[in-house]
Amino acid sequence: MLTTTAPGLDLEASFEQALQGFGLSPAAAHLLWLPLPMVLVLVAAVVGVLVNVWLERKISAAVQQRIGPEYAGALGVLQPMADGLKLVFKEDIIPARADGLLFTLGPVLVLIPVILSWLVVPFGQHLLISNVGIGIFLWISLSSIQPIGLLMSGYASNNKYSLLGGLRAAAQSISYEIPLALAVLAVVMMSNSLSTVDIVNQQTGAGILSWNIWRQPVGFVIFWICALAECERLPFDLPEAEEELVAGYQTEYSGMKFALFYLGSYINLVLSALLVSVLYLGGWGFPIPVEWLASWLHQPIDAPLVQLITGSVGIVMTVLKAYLLVFLAILLRWTTPRVRIDQLLDLGWKFLLPIALVNLLITAALKLAFPAVFGG
Amino acid sequence: MFGFLKKVGDYTRDAVGAANYLTQGLAVTFDHLRRRPITVQYPYEKLIPSERYRGRIHYEFDKCIACEVCVRVCPINLPVVDWVMNKATKKKELRNYSIDFGVCIFCGNCVEYCPTNCLSMTEEYELAAFDRHSLNFDNIALGRLPTSVTSDPAVVPLRELVYLPKGVLDPHDVPDTAPRVGKLPEQVLESLPSGDAS
Question: Is B130 part of any domain?
């Protein structure tokens, strides 16, 4: 399934062809290509976080009939940038009785897997860093590195709140990983592939009607709840519950190390929203298939201009769907009260896990009964 | 068998109920996005205090007869009236008068009971100070004219909610001429039958 050569904008091939035209060897051309998508995705992730922070503050303000950030840039768009700059210039403090090495390693271990997971986020047929065959599995395994970093920083801080926060984060991540993986498994079963590109391609047949959310509504809800729990968003923000634990595992952090946590949590939110849109909302697919639109307008789908437009529409659709989900997450933040730790684990183990299992079994049965609709 | 099915049914009903409550909550928060903020940008914009606002107390030294009624009606006997008896004229001679606004609760009893109306309430409310002792106003400080929101050129005065026209919640962009909701006191007096107005 890796070598699907569906028509689509392939920047990599064209770039390497152009370089080979200058007389470079294919290997050298590939080497020159490699850093481009990485830097681009890193920049996209950071800009995504800035937009996310701004949206969070503005939407929170609107929900509470406040104005929100206003003076830094038009409508306060530069406020997240100002916050980030402030954190860069802050003193980097390692508490006297803390374990310096683990204390430094913790935030790094939290951030790196999250950024690495962007490897498999597709914005178009060929618009991703690498179409890994085990894409979605890679994301799940990478996200299970994160609790180690959280636990590490909580333990190394030598602070009771940090330790409790780290322990809670680990317990929460481990509990919600399982229903999350089961929900993903049902989708994977329908598309016969772990690759994110194949999962989206399987949802492109009939536009909005072929999106996985109609075939996997329960899986969608489970995945979204688990993703919120993994991101430590508000109904499940026990690890950093400020009323109980000051700031959880972040208590002793300041300056750039704190910024890494901050960045990590927001990149994770954007990433989760992107993956929900990939797994359940048709990824880069337009509600009406672009192929139909092209044929109605009597345009050949392979024409360069049409390719460019479909590529741009794909990126816009992916980002739009992701930010709609981010909006939902922000709205949920101001709607739901925080759950207790026992309620959190109850919900994970006694509710989501059985439901996800039943969902998986039903999907398997439906796949056997209606192979045409549920992926043969 | 039926017990198990009943449990499953109850569980499902609970889950559906929880989802229902969640959507209701989301509807509330989503609805709040529609409502615009009526924020007053404080140092640049200020609300005009109402006419019965109980702010910093103003005091006129020359009217005071040092009767100490203000001290007696004060819940904590706060005003300090410093007078001496002039033996020659057999009259009280007032030397100093002070009220500590760090302790005052602005109940207005002193103003209410002052026989010569030398005490009055102002609309001044920005009493923040770096040192609490500077809140102990003597008769000179008490005699200063109060600052007014409407006369400060650096401040945009805004009307309070009850002084806005009917149905208006946002004080910005309301013209000065727009009448407030309800009747003014003099209009109420006019509408009363004559002889009842006393």
Answer: yes
Q: From the list B28, B30, B39, which residue is nearest A66 (CB)? A: B39
**Number of domains present in the structure of chain B:** 3
A213-223 core/surface letters (b: 16 or more CB in 10 A; e: else): bebbebbbbbb
- B156 to chain A, closest Cα gap in Å: 18
Would an 8 Å CB–CB cutoff place A335 in contact with chain B? yes
Q: Is A63 on the interface with B (CB under 8 A)?
A: yes
Q: pTM of the prediction?
A: 0.80
Q: Which residues are registered as beta bridge partners of A304?
A: none
Is residue B133 domain-shared with residue B82, that is, in the same domain?
Answer: yes
Write out the residue range of the structural domain in which residue A240 sits.
Answer: 95-374
Is residue A1 included in any domain, yes or no? no
> A65 lies in a domain?
no
Q: How buried is residue A158: exposed, middle or buried, by Cβ count under 10 Å (0-12/13-18/19+)? A: middle
Asked whether residue A250 is domain-assigned, the answer is yes
Contact residues, chain A, for B37 at CB < 8 Å: 61-62, 65-67
Regarding whether B109 and B82 lie in a shared domain, the answer is: yes
CB A330 within 8 A of CB A55: yes
What's the pLDDT tens digit per position in B96-133? 999 999 999 999 999 999 999 999 999 898 889 999 99
**Residue B186's domain spans which residues?**
161-190
Average pLDDT over residues B143-148: 89
Contact between B39 and A336 using a beta-carbon 8 Å cutoff: no
pLDDT digits (tens, 9 = 90+) for A3-52: 344 455 677 777 778 888 887 788 888 888 888 888 888 898 889 889 99
Q: How far is A66 from chain B (nearest CA, A)?
A: 5
Q: Is residue B1 part of a domain?
A: yes
State how far the Cα of A172 lies from the Cα of A233, in Å rounded to an integer.
12
Which residues on A lie below 8 Å from B30 (Cβ)?
331
Q: Which of A363, A324, A271, A289 is closest to A49 using CA atoms?
A: A271
| B150 reaches A (C-beta below 8 A) | no
Identify whether residues B109 and B65 lie together within a single domain: yes
B137's enclosing H/E stretch is strand B136-138
Instruction: Tell me which chain B residues have a C-beta less than 8 angstroms from the C-beta of A332.
Output: 26
Q: Is A122 exposed, middle or buried (0-12, 13-18, 19+ CB in 10 A)?
A: buried
Q: What are A56's strand-pairing partners?
A: none
Residue stretches of the annotated binding site of B for [4Fe-4S] cluster: 64, 67, 70, 74, 104, 107, 110, 114
Number of domains composing chain A:
1
Q: Does residue B121 share a domain with residue B94? A: yes
Residue B183 domain flag: yes
Pick the residue of A56, A63, A71, A234 with the most B CBs within 10 A to test the interface with B by mutation: A63
Would you call B27 an interface residue with chain A, using a CB distance cutoff of 8 Å? no
Q: Which of B26, B30, B37 sits opposite A65 (nearest CB)?
A: B37
Q: Which contiguous run of DSSP H or E holds residue A273?
A: helix A255-279
Residue B149 C-alpha, separation from nearest chain A C-alpha, in angstroms: 23
Whether residues B96 and B170 fall in one domain: no
Tens of each residue's pLDDT in chain A, 376 residues? 333 444 556 777 777 788 888 877 888 888 888 888 888 888 988 898 899 999 999 999 988 888 888 888 888 888 888 988 898 898 888 888 888 888 888 899 989 998 888 888 888 777 777 777 888 888 888 888 888 888 898 888 888 888 888 888 888 888 898 999 999 999 888 888 888 888 888 888 777 888 888 888 889 999 999 999 888 887 888 777 767 777 778 888 888 888 888 888 899 999 999 999 988 888 887 888 777 777 888 777 777 777 788 888 888 988 999 999 999 999 888 888 888 888 888 888 888 898 899 999 998 898 888 887 777 5
